[in-house]
Amino acid sequence: MLNFFIPTLAFLFQSRLVDGLSRMWESAKQPDLSKFLVVGALLFIIGVAGVLTRRNIIVIFMSIELILNAANLNFIAFSRYLQVTNPANAVAGQLFAVFVIVVAAAEAAIGLGIVIALYRNKETIWVDEIDLLKW
Amino acid sequence: MTLSGYEALFFWIFALSAIFAGLLTVMARNAVHSALFLISSLVSVAALFVIAGAEFIAGVQILVYVGGVMVLFLFVIMLVNVGAEEMGREEIFNKQKQVTASLIFCFLLVGGVLYAVSEGYRGLQAINSQKVAEQTALQAARTQRLGTGATGTSRITEDTQNLGALLYRYGSLPFEIASVLLLVAIIGSVMLARTLKQEASADDVDPETLQEEIASDPELAKLELRSE
Q1: B26 interaction partners in chain A (CB closer than 8 Å)
Q2: Residues 198-227, chain B: which have Cβ within 8 Å of A?
Q3: How far does A2 lie from chain B, in Å, by closest CA?
Q4: pTM for the complete prediction?
Q5: Which of A10, A24, A65, B136 has the largest CB neighbor count within 10 A?
Q6: SS3 assignment, position B93
Q7: Quick check: helix, strand or coil at residue A123?
Q8: Nearest residue on chain A to B82, judged by CA atoms?
Q9: How far apart are the first and last CA of chain A?
Q10: What is the mean pLDDT of chain B?
Q11: Over the stretch B99-140, which tens digit does the pLDDT of each residue have?
Q12: How many CB atoms lie within 10 A of CB A109?
């Protein structure tokens, strides 16, 4: 009895594993909307990790740019997806991406102005040493 | 939208390089290296935009982000002193406890977001699979109507025309608001980055503060007189 079951289970497990891998390979050969969203999500989370862990205020700003860029990637991917699900040639997602880029540029200008003013007064770029509001 | 052939190959190449360059941006010790890795991540994402059929946004991304914003970042990195960081004397990450807590949070976020994406995409496919099959044929017919490029094998897209029409027809109020936002950002950053001397010559300093500062820097008193 045991002699029969173990090879059968092994075969079933193996076939399921191979099956799963081959299905992953098949879906990787034809990336669709979900792959774009996964890349966007990973970039977003790398940006969040950078904001939460780094001490250098300039690198924190760069991480924010990474987050905004991940949001742009999602807008573009959905814009492409809407082009094949909607009868109209939808480019509304690209419109939103333009506005995100505009806001990112304005944010970078203001943020770096603040960094320069801060450096002039406090002589530091480490965020844990900028603690005027902490008591 | 499914990519195939070389599009799929290049999608994976640029996706992996965007993610690796993003990781290196966060982990590099030198801020200049961080900025260069961020530039390569942005260029890879621009290539992903091209693969997704948004050529205009890819061009804007290169021009505005890589050509404008990142040059601004590099200027500011050069202006503030980062010598201590390069020598390896300073810790680049926060305290151990904060880093551990935020990494746990990030891993939870990864799991949650990936689960939401896969579930949501399955639901979306269940709703739209019929439509996708119909519209893919229509899309192919629309592509056939577009003019061919110089090589004869590729088509000239009309997405940029459509984007411009959409921007000025339906998005003209947000467009104007964005221009006002940029104006405010320019004036605000000029105001923020002024030195005390510039502020004094524009007579824009609190008088008591100015008296204190004159004690250490007599030059300021002359500026004060000149403005009156």
Answers
A1: 46-47, 49-50, 53-54, 59, 63
A2: none
A3: 38
A4: 0.85
A5: A65
A6: strand
A7: coil
A8: A125
A9: 73
A10: 85
A11: 999 999 999 999 999 999 889 888 888 887 777 777 777 777
A12: 21
CATH ID of A33-129, from 3.10.20.340, 3.40.50.720, 1.10.10.10, 1.10.287.3510: 1.10.287.3510
**The residue to which tokens 């008088």 are assigned:** B207
Six-digit token string for B63: 């021009």
Residue A68 CB partners (closer than 8 Å, separation 6+): A100, A103, A104
Complex prediction ipTM: 0.85
Over residues A44-83, the pLDDT tens digits come to: 999 999 999 998 899 999 999 999 999 999 999 988 888 7
Q: Which of A 100-119 lie inside 8 A of B, CB atoms? A: 101-110, 112-117, 119
State whether CATH 1.20.120.1200 applies to domain B1-88.
Answer: yes
8 Å CB contact of B48 and A126: no
Q: Which of A69, A77, A101 sits opposite B52 (nearest CB)?
A: A77
**Domains of chain B, residue spans:** 1-88, 100-146
Interface size between A and B, measured as CB pairs under 8 A:
245
Residue B41 and residue B22 in contact, taking contact as beta carbons nearer than 8 Å: yes
Secondary structure class of B72 (helix, strand, coil): helix
Chain A CB contacts of B94 below 8 Å: 52-55, 128
| CA gap A116, A135 in Å, rounded | 24
Determine the residue type at A91: V
Q: Give the minimum alpha-carbon distance from A64 to chain B in angstroms, rounded to a whole number.
A: 11
- Chain B, window 130-149: residues with a beta carbon less than 8 angstroms from a chain A beta carbon: 131-132, 135-136, 138-139, 142
